[in-house]
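Listing S7. Sequence submitted for prediction.
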Amino acid sequence: MKLFKMTLRARNMLTIKSNINLISVKLLIILIICVLIGFAMGCSADSEIKGEVSGGTVNLPPKDPVLKWVPPEVAGWSSDELQDAHEFAIQTGCQAVMALHDGKIFFSRGNTHRNYAVDSIGETFFNALFGIHEHQGNINLTATLADLHVDDIPPGLTPAEKQAKVEHLLMSRSGVYHEAAAEDQKMIDERPERGSHAPGTFFYHNKWDVNALGTIFEQATGEEICNAFKKEIADVLEMVDYEISYCSSQYQWSKSLHPAYHFKVSPRDLAKFGALYQKDGLWNDSRIIQEYWIDESTMAYSTIPDTDGLGYGYLWKIIPEDSDLGQLIGHSGYYHIGADDYVLVIIPDLKLVIVQRYNRNHNWENPEDDSLELTMLILDARLDT
C-alpha cells in the first residue's frame, strides 16, 4: 500500500505542473459559460467539478438540503493524501465514493446522486424498521414462527423449524433452510440441509430469514415494507434521490410464500442512512432509532466463516477490534456489502461513514479487495491528532 501511495505521489508531482494551468483554464471556462448561459440553458445541479487544487481534489457533490461539505482539513483529513484515494477510485472503476465525518462530506467523487441497486445492503433497512417498531411494541423478538403463524409452501416448516424466534432470523441463525425467493446459485449450493441445525445454534447468511422478516414486519405493523421505508426512513432523512418506485417485491411462488425486497438508493442518500447509525439513531436532534437497538444490532452474535474474525449482528456485518480487519483499521466498526459492488462502512470511533459503488461490469478479480484498499487509503489520509 505504501509503495502504491509513493508511486501515486511521484506521478502526481510529475504531472501536476503540466496539468494545473490546463485545469485552471478549464474551470474558468466552465464558470464563464455558466455565468453567460446559465439563465438560458441552466447549469445542471447534478454536474460535478473535478480538478486538482493545491494537491487536493475538488469534486463538489450535487446540491443537497441535508448533507453539507467541509474541507478535508476541517474534518481532520489531508487533501493531499485523499488525492491517492481519488486516483485509486478512478483506476479501479469506482463509480462513486463518498466519505462523511460526523455527517458532513469531506470526500466525494463520481455519480453520488444516481440510484443503484443496493442488493443485500437492503437488509440494514430492515434492521432500521424492526428497531423502530420493536421500540413501539409492535414487534416481539422472542416470538416464534409458530406464535406468528409463519409457514411456507410444501414441504412446509417442521415443528422444530417453527420454534425459531424473530431474533434468530435477525441473526441469520433460524435453522430454517427452505427455498427462498431471489437466492443466487452460491446461496443454493451452500444452503444446509433441512433439519441439520436447531434454531439459534448455527450461523448461515440465509435469504429465507430476510424474506420472512419482511412478512413478519408487514403482519405485525400493518404497513407494507416499501411504504414504511419511504415514510419512516427516506422522508425523515430527506433522501432527495429516492422515490417509492425504487422499492419492489419479488415473488417466486414455486419456491416460497415470502417475497424478496429490492431497493435502489443513491450513494449520497445511503450515506445519510449510514450517518443516522453513526449518530446512534439521532437525526437533526430527533430520535429516530433507539441507541440500545443500534448497540444490540452491531454486536457480533456469530463469527462469519473464512473472514479472519468478522462477525454478524442483527442484519449487519461486524468488524470486531480484535479481528484481522479491525486491527488493520485500528478500530471496530460495522458494514454491509451489496453484490460485491456497493459498500457501506461505519466506524463510530472516528465518526466516519464511507460509501462506495463500483461498476459491476468492470473487469476485476475481486472487488472486495479494491473496496478495502480504497477504504484504507481514505483512513490513511487522516491527519494525526
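Caption to Listing S7: primary sequence and predicted C-alpha cells for the chain studied. The chain is about 40% helix and 15% strand. The two ends are 22 Å apart (CA to CA).
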